[in-house]
Amino acid sequence: MQSSGETVAADRASDLAVNLLLSGPAGGLTAIQFLGRQIENEKLISFDMGGTSTDVALIDGKINTTTEGQIDRYPIGVPMVDMHTIGAGGGSIAFVDSGGRLKVGPQSAGADPGPACYAKGGEVATVTDANLVLGRLLVSSALAGSLTLNLAKSQSVIQALSNVLGISVEETALGVVTIANEHMAKAIRLISVNRGYDPSEFVLASFGGAGGLHVCAVAEAMQMKRAIVPVYGGVLSALGMMVADRGRQFTRTVSLYAEDAVTQNIEEQFLELAEQGRCELLDEGLSRSKLQVKYSVDCRYHGQSYTLNIPWVNLRTCCTAFAGLHKQRYGYDLSASIEIVNIRVNVIAAAKAFTLPLNSCAGENDKFGSIQVYGSEEPAKVFNRGQLQTGTEFEGPAIVSEYAATIFVAPDWKARVDHYGNLLLSKTIE
Fold it and tell me: 249: closest CA among 68, 83, 78?
């Protein structure tokens, strides 16, 4: 799996190591795009929350890529999915700073020793511990590796923070979760509002082991009224790798001003790059007849440092599309010269046709008791996701437990199981 969201033959991977750096997150985003096609809604904001970090990205019909990515302090100049990552996950450490303020992350307890509730030696409070104290995460959750959760240890580490803050254990735990939610909402604003998109027009697609515990709160923070927790949400990156296209992306710097450019010369260079891509994929055993080619260009106004990627049809259409996208992204356009900085060619071979299997559960939709959740007047209903039939509907507060994740349906939200087993969430009160 490459950082661009396309796969490469295994025997070529060692020659393209730099292209694999963001393979896991790219797999998740590819799965979300696939899911959007399955449910016939391709306006999605992906929200992938794991143990150490959260990845967010916006899909408006397609996955956007960038060559201006960065990992830690290192700039990465190869194509990768355009996504924003923050240090907020289930293992993010909560602490009180020297000024007496409660903070969360970016430091993480990791998987070993992990949150205190894992009882593997962790002695610091984390977001997972806070969710357990609030009752949103079940002590009886079936976790990988026969791991069990220790509520007493979570209460102990959260108590240490509450003593410093002078508030109750539950209030402290809620504060930890609220701060983590705001970190994630801020990240979503960067890839949506700051780029001229209205989040309320999109569906929040939450996955990763910890995403379901925060999905309703993050959606509310973004004034989004719909969300989806996909089936297989805890291992969605693996699904993305199965449905991804085989492909290559090539870039060539041309640095031409639109008024001086000659369309024929640009298209000749497109053809050269396209043939290079075809040859590489043919070497992997693919048929030439199955290869598709997409052209695009990176443009900017004269004097600017950053570019916008525009699909290539012809020179006139390119300039018009750039001006429109620039106005959407930044709120204005200019009469300045438009510079075509790079040309890009994407050569792909479509993946084999694949559809999600229909939800085959024939259970009784029985709830497995209830649990008191802090901040809710009524107890939260508890469900096993594997036993929810298609069409099942219920209102929050509710907790849906599965092997790889837990979902908290907040009060004023309702859930419905679609025919694939995805959990569709919607806000019930404005």
Answer: 78
DSSP 88: -
- DSSP of 82-143, one letter per residue? --EEES-STTEEEEE-TTS-EEEEEEE-TTTT-SGGG-SS--S-BHHHHHHHHTSS-TT---
Report DSSP letters for 35-67, one per residue.
Answer: HHHHTT--EEEEEEE-SS-EEEEEEESSB-EES
Q: What is the pTM of this model?
A: 0.88
Nearest Cα to Cα of residue 168 among 156, 177, 179, 159 = 159
Specify the DSSP element, H or E, that contains 162.
helix 151-165
| pLDDT tens per residue across span 226-281 | 999 998 887 888 899 999 999 999 889 999 999 888 888 899 999 999 999 999 99
- Asked if residue 259 lies in contact with residue 337, where contact means CB atoms within 8 angstroms, the answer is yes
Sheet holding 398-401, edge to edge: 370-371, 380-384, 398-401, 406-409
**Angle at which helices 236-243 and 23-38 pack, to 10 degrees?**
80
Summarised one tens digit per residue, pLDDT across range 126-151 is 999 999 999 999 998 767 667 889 99
Cα(237)–Cα(240) distance, rounded to whole angstroms? 5
261, 263, 267, 268: CA torsion to nearest 10 = -70
- Pairing type for strands 226-229 and 203-207 reads parallel
